[in-house]
Fold:
Amino acid sequence: MSHVHHPDGRLRLAATLVVSIATALTTSLASLLAMFLIALLAMIFKTAKDKALITNVGRRLFRVNAFLLLVWITSAITWRDIALDEDGALFAMQMTLRVNIVTFAATLLLMRMSGVELGRAAVGLGLPNALGTLLAQLVRQVALLSETKTRLERAMRARAYRPAFGFRSLHVSAQLVAWLIIHALARSERLSLGLRARGISSSRWPLRTSTVWRALPKSDWSILVAVMLIVGLCLVLPRLGIPS
Amino acid sequence: MHIAEGVLDIPTLVASAGCTTVGITIGLRRLTPGTLPTAALFAAVFFLIGTIHIPIGVGSVHLILNGLIGLLLGWLAFPVIFVALALQALLFSFGGFTSLGANTLLMALPAVIAGLILRPLLRRPPSSKRRLLAVGALAATIGILGATLIAATMLWSTGGETLLGLITLVAAAQTPVWLIDVIVTALAVSMLGRARPTAFISETQRDV
Structure:
């Protein structure tokens, strides 16, 4: 059995935040373009042999770029004269680069991170313990409730329900929502009774703590350091005389 | 309704994250290890509601129902929506981590307002079907219109006149979402009010 080591979640999340904050801080096209090209190359390198990942990334990119298309249509073109609005085009270009850089970075750095790991990483970076625990519990409850939702949808289909635009679909969707909430309430009551029956009345948040920073291997730190170096270099590009 | 990462500027992100922090702090005061499973279950419901699609022509819209979440949870809507959006950002790249504060604010603030205004009307069951339908419709209206208004303000503060066209388009695109949310929330509140009238009592009074 092979064991693939994933770097510490806190460092991966911190690296993602560094990229996001750096792209939001800069308005230089040279910096944004350099970051975009590096992120694109890294993404091509990573997805080259993984068809499932290409589909996943393609879907994410389609979603964000569909919104950016609207930004270009509404901001970069003056529709009265059918001409390019230079300020609008510059704004749209900056936004396009930013959104795509962050999408690439988040996909690459947070690849295969679970919701529980995200919660633990976020708590490690200063998020309140209660929120981290809530996130970890959410992952568990989503898995259980989505089974309920699948069962309800199967029952709806068995009664010849086909979703279409009309009052019938809205009524059935409302029933599905109400059923999900009723299931959630009933389940929470069962959970509460179960906890009480076992005499559990803890006031602590049951989240596993992360490894201490000093115990992390150097290879894990290298990801954060590499990202900070690349981002730092891209940010100083305009000061090196490269036109923005 | 998510604002993608990279769209908003730093001052808007910081201001919205600050407001969200205040909301989450108030919400967390109502969260104890005992109420945690209930909060997580409602976060799961909010997460799954986003996967219910209603076909419109060749496309489809997904349900938001933040007004309904506000009616059920009050201030707890802030932490619950925050974690649900964080998971959506991780799994589907909806929104993002630096825009999490902005996205939580635009979903949760109208939800809390809907809860604060309308929940007292549901405290004394049994409510009539007409009242339940009206409360549900109002909650959805506050939820969607509030979210649209906050999103428009954030986009305006980032791009000003440059994004005016986009703001108009986004607001217009929310009209079918609003109509669908009004009908679904009204019907869902009516069904819940009759099947589980205690669903709308305060989260601190709920026996968990």
About this structure: The mean pLDDT of chain A is 83. The first strand of chain A starts at residue 77 and ends at 78.
